[in-house]
Q: What sequence folds into this?
């Protein structure tokens, strides 16, 4: 209340604040008064040895989002701002600006390692708008839903499950979640506690003996038939590594039911890249040139050269990394396609050099 009154008064006096507008001054008093999306980490919850949940309270400039969508989170690490996309693992309740994301430490992942090891309650983060259509149907009370997830792919699914529970939805849910073992099963206790007649949650472990009636092994059509014989009549969601995504999408494709399946990939699917496919990458604005192989994304090449290009998801989804190609061609690391004309915008997070190339960066 006090904050909003101060903001109104100061904004009314924007002309006094020249050369900066009042919002910039407000931001120096309290970063959460910024007119850009900001959030404070309210608390951290250690989910597994290498996974932590951040409960974040956003400021009024953040537009909110739906469970299952991803939010772009910006962190300042050693003076450089890094943006990453994380799924909302919780609903954003009406009237609340609190939400959670759950971050799994990736091998060599600068941001996920920082979040797991260094981030503390009270720290501030930058936020950009949420995006993505991996969300619940608008009419869901009488829906039959099927969630299939593995590893950290459980996070958007958990967001939707929590949403359904919070709104006491009448949706009929079957969930099949895979984890290598119990120690690394994110949300293990909550998933068990959420199991009910209306929400039948099946856990499967792939590298440990199953217990308590759980399943053992990887996804298969037989396993799905076993836990969910009516899967063909459900709106389905799958999120996890590419092996799971491929197996599930092939099953739905074979059944002529692809339109009933929503997919959220967490791991970039990499096409084969021929040896020696890279080249010299020129960054014309920065005035730098470096050697690059044909497998490393141009975003990583740029970061390795000390540049800090804008980006978001790093998975080819959000188009937050578009850069203009000046010369040469690039390879789409998802499909292997080589393409590009001078002046074309390319997603540098999923494209690598295909020979010598220069970018307007
Ligand atoms: S960072 Fe999202 S498409 Fe490249």
A:
């Amino acid at each position: 209340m006090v904050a909003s009154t101060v903001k109104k008064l100061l904004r009314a006096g924007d002309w006094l604040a020249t050369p900066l507008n009042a919002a910039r001054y407000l931001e120096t008093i309290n970063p959460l008064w910024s007119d850009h999306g900001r959030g404070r980490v309210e608390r951290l919850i250690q989910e597994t040895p290498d996974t932590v949940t951040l409960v974040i309270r956003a400021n009024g400039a953040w537009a909110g989002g739906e469970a299952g969508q991803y939010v772009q989170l910006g962190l300042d690490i050693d003076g450089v701002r890094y943006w990453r996309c994380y799924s909302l693992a919780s609903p954003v309740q009406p009237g609340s600006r609190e939400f959670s994301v759950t971050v799994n430490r990736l091998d060599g992942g600068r941001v996920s390692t920082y979040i797991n090891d260094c981030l503390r309650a009270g720290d501030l983060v930058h936020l950009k708008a949420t995006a993505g259509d991996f969300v619940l149907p608008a009419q869901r009370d009488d829906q039959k839903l099927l969630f299939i997830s593995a590893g950290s792919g459980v996070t958007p699914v958990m967001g939707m499950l929590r949403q359904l529970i919070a709104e006491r939805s009448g949706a009929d849910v079957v969930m099949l979640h895979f984890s290598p073992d119990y120690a690394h099963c994110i949300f293990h206790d909550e998933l068990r506690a959420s199991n009910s007649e209306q929400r039948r949650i099946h856990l499967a472990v792939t590298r440990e003996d199953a217990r308590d009636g759980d399943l053992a092994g990887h996804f298969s059509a037989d396993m799905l038939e076993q836990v969910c014989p009516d899967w063909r009549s459900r709106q389905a969601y799958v999120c996890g590594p590419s092996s799971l995504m491929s197996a599930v999408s092939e099953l739905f494709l074979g059944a002529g039911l692809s339109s009933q399946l929503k997919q959220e990939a967490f791991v970039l699917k990499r096409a084969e890249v021929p040896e020696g496919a890279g080249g010299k990458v020129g960054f014309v604005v920065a005035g730098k040139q470096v050697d690059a192989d044909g497998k490393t994304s141009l975003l990583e090449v740029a970061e390795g050269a000390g540049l800090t290009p804008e980006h978001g998801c790093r998975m080819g989804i959000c188009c937050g990394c578009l850069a203009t190609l000046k010369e040469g061609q690039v390879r789409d690391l998802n499909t292997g396609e080589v393409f590009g004309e001078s002046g074309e915008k390319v997603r540098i997070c999923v494209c690598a050099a295909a020979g010598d190339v220069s970018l307007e960066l």
Q: What stands out?
A: The helical segments are 2-12, 22-29, 110-117, 154-166, 188-194, 221-227, 242-254, 298-304. The chain has three domains: 36-129, 144-265, 279-359. Residues 311-314, 316-321, 347, 349 surround FE2/S2 (inorganic) cluster (CB under 6 Å). The radius of gyration is 22 Å.
